[in-house]
């Protein structure tokens, strides 16, 4: 199952708070079009069939293809000098 670093958890919580911050808000990762890779969007709640990953109060929702692709990954995040969020994946040890 996908895991989140402390940085990723903090950034996910910050993003969802900016979007309204309901108890069910989180980031949703989808892989509907393999040619475009993974897509990350803010979501008010999970969609039917989504896997929910929670870490330190942060919620990430994965559609079925993304859940399968990220099953053994760690999600990290950082904010660059311009204020843009950058996500990175690494294999779990």
UniProtKB/TrEMBL annotation:
The lineage of its organism: Bacteria, Bacillati, Actinomycetota, Actinomycetes, Propionibacteriales. Gene3D superfamilies: HesB-like domain. It comes from the Bacteria. This is Fe-S cluster assembly protein HesB.
């Amino acid at each position: 199952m996908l895991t989140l670093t402390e940085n990723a958890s903090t950034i996910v919580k910050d993003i969802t708070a900016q979007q309204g911050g309901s108890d069910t808000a989180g980031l949703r990762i989808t892989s509907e079009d393999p040619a475009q890779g993974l897509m990350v969007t803010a979501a008010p709640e999970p969609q039917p069939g989504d896997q929910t990953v929670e870490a330190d109060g942060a919620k990430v929702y994965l559609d079925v293809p993304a859940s399968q692709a990220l099953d053994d990954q760690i999600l990290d995040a950082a904010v660059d000098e311009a204020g843009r969020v950058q996500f990175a994946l690494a294999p779990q040890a």
